Amino acid sequence: MTSNDKPKDGSEEPRPASPRGRQASRQAPQPVEPRPRRYMVAALPQPHPAVPGAAVPALDGDTVRRLLEDDPEVRVLRRLRGTAGNPGAQAPGFPAVVVAEMTAEHVEALRRQYPQLYFERDRLLTYSDVPQPPRRRRSAPAVVPPGVESTFAFLVRDADGTPLPGASVLVTGHGWPAQTSTGTDGRAVVTMVGETPESINGVTVRPRSGYWSVHIDRPALSTTRDNLIEPMRLSETFNGFPGRQVFGWGQQAMNLDRLPPTLRGAGVRIAVIDSGADIRHPDLRDRVHAGVDLVGGEPDGWSVDAAYHGSHCAAVVSGADDGRGVVGFAVEAEVHVCKIFPGGRFSDLIEALDYCVEQRIDVVNLSLASRHHSPLVAAKIEQAREAGVACVVAAGNDGGPVGFPGILPGVLTVAAVGKSDAFPPGTAHEAEIRGPVTGDGFFSPRFTCHGPEIDVCAPGVAVLSAVPPDGYAALDGTSMAAPHVAGLAALVLAHHGDFRGLFSGRDARRVDHLFHIIRSSCVPLNLGDLHRTGAGMPNALRALAPALAQITPEPVEADTLLGQLTAEMTGAGLLVPAGGGPDGDSGHTGRGGKTGPGAQPGMTPQAAYGAGATANGPVPGGLVTGGRRGRATSTGGASPAGQGGAPGGTGTRGKRGGTAADRPYATGPGGGRTPGGAADDAPMAPRTANGMPAGGIGPSGGEQAAMAWLREEMRAAGLLGEDPADPTE
């Protein structure tokens, strides 16, 4: 039971908390009995169905509440107020709802007595990253002797011997899995009934933050000594992290890092309905402006996140652009948090959506799902849509059909995709790879829910983001994919001209047009099943093309541009810096100097080069002025996904097609971004590992390569117009 069980109107005294320890030990034991079920009860709209031949009086919300409060077999918990329908909207008003506990048998009796009442189970909602790698289908052992059990002790520490407390340890065998967490000494003990060391299928360890997960198939476990597991630090993959800011691989895949720093989502309000957001975190401290705790009712309870889930989602949406850690999509949007987890139910979601309507929220991120349909929640989501509130919903993580509310037509439903070079081998992320895999490494993970209701797909494997109190973790789930799309939706609302004109009103047309723009911006992914990818992956450059066309480059002084150009070419290895040479320090291997940043585990060579760049290139500001977040220096060889493939459909569910994206993405800071055409355009000229056009042998070839690379970079930065002689333009 949560504190949400007590009435919010004070009609019943809260139950005193049962202290642990000596006082609790004096209490007599109680037999375990089934819990009463929780229901939402509302008066049906008029005309309501009546028993044939009988006159049934109409009921309002106050009457329903008094009726239930006077019933000794009903415990009233709280009441959700009714709301009127929006003027001119098709959706009717929302009735007052009484949340109460009673038995299923008593509900049937009340239904017969009061046919004008509507009863609906107030079910639990689920949120999570992926709890465990998929279990292989193996036949059970022929005979398991009764009483057989195995105890495994684990020691989880890093390579330096530092124990990792709070790490989750999951052991799967032929029977039920067992899960525990490590103590302060990094140790954990798991006892499994009916299992032997030979029957264990896998071990997964997930540290709380700062480290990659570990997954071992068919582990050789000992029952007589500690089983040592040493996760890899995130900083071993992302050079200088978290002291240096990085773009997540998903943000690069959606071309967020190619947007000019003037597009930051100012003026848009985003709500994250989740487990709260820890505002102590540097990436959230100045980004989350307000919230409400619908579980505990504490004034600041929304700023506490014991589950780590809401903070991770909030930082993907709007993490601070402060030069360290991670950066979100809409870094200047106003972020609100509605805390409904742990213990969130349909009634809490209804209250959270009421908050969003009242606060004039523009985009709601719903990283939650249920296997059960709720007509009341569906009505509330439709009412929010009519009020101009756009709901972006995660598809679900159990690998089956799309969950609720992702199946509703008025939301944008997001599935997850992964990328094989976005994480090191041997992690739990690797266990989620499901074929086919594109040439760029994209795959549809095993856990993502799928079906004709999927609108788009977004990065949802090994997503790096903030977790309490000041750490970072790489998590999996459609819960991580939805914030990518919610953040992009905020940018579109803030900067796309359509929402300052024809679609400026807060109504359903505004929401539908926003979803249409996002679907139309998608680059299709050919992963064998359109029900797993929808229209494809949204692309920030396509979605914001009208806004980008209106940007006027700032004037740049010749000396400033020359200095930036020199630094860019030096960082690319085209020029030797002053003092360089055979005995100088060029920063590049093979030039007699110190070795530059090399490839890190789980990173491509392009990412290793990008690790030496700032968010805007190898020098502060790069070729883009105006802020921290800008276009990264080109380090990749293929055309960007934003330019590849055909545009997605306009949202017709279950009838989507297209070609695969044809561009690899690197993890880590920076990332490869070169101007390019559609998938069927003439191919770009050959390029080196650093993303420059490959020139001939000798100085003349290097000069030609440098000039061609310079023209591309300056044109992509808006400093040069299009070249009419260039067939790829």
UniProtKB/TrEMBL annotation:
Domain Peptidase S8/S53: 265-498
Gene Ontology MF terms in the entry: serine-type endopeptidase activity
Compositional bias segments (type: Low complexity): 632-641, 658-667, 676-686
InterPro entries, A to Z: Peptidase_S8/S53_dom, Peptidase_S8/S53_dom_sf, Peptidase_S8_Ser-AS, Peptidase_S8_subtilisin-like, Peptidase_S8_subtilisin-rel
Region (Disordered): 1-37, 573-705
Keywords from the named record: Hydrolase, Protease, Serine protease
Matches recorded under Gene3D superfamilies: Peptidase S8/S53 domain (3.40.50.200)
Source organism superkingdom: Bacteria
Gly residues: compositionally biased ranges: 578-596, 642-652
Entry's family note: Belongs to the peptidase S8 family.
UniProt-recorded name of the protein: Subtilase family protein
Native source organism of the sequence: Microbispora rosea
